[in-house]
Hints:
With 207 residues, the protein is mainly α. It has helices at residues 2-55, 81-87, 119-127, 152-158, 164-177, 194-200; strands spanning 58-65, 71-76, 111-114, 145-146, 204-205. A hairpin with a 5-residue loop joins strand 1 (58-65) and strand 2 (71-76). Helix 4 packs across helix 5 (164-177). The longest helix has 54 residues, at 2-55.
Amino acid sequence: xxxxxxxxxxxxxxxxxxxxxxxxxxxxxxxxxxxxxxxxxxxxxxxxxxxxxxxxxxxxxxxxxxxxxxxxxxxxxxxxxxxxxxxxxxxxxxxxxxxxxxxxxxxxxxxxxxxxxxxxxxxxxxxxxxxxxxxxxxxxxxxxxxxxxxxxxxxxxxxxxxxxxxxxxxxxxxxxxxxxxxxxxxxxxxxxxxxxxxxxxxxxxxx
Length: 207
């Protein structure tokens, strides 16, 4: 009788071991399948994102003035001014970046001058209230006004029929819609029709 009880006890113990192993294996398969599903989903999403990232054009900008590491930096099309400033080590303690458009999109080949404290006030006193960058970043080498980088005041001072309010409208438009790809796109700005465009088309550029 004792032998029978022992064999029964052994049999129950063996069954418990097999049952426990089966539960653990089931949990392992479940977690393994979940991990594989996540990996497959990530792999499905990666090609599209990688291709989109690869299609972005590399641009170069020159950051100068009151930054810790002035120089030429490589970024991607669609990056913004604050990213270029960060690459240059950030602004120095004597920098005055209050009037800079840190959220605007960058343009390939542009210069980003960061003024020191007091420089902005001196420039505003000379220009009558508007700040123009000391390096003249709103103008191209040919003397035309770059409507992708010029401030509202620069456009008002340099372009016939463009006052401060309309100049600000141009700045607001490019901040919302991205840089102008062609000078004719300036006609999308409210207040600039064919007649006004004809008066300024030879004085503006997008490069």
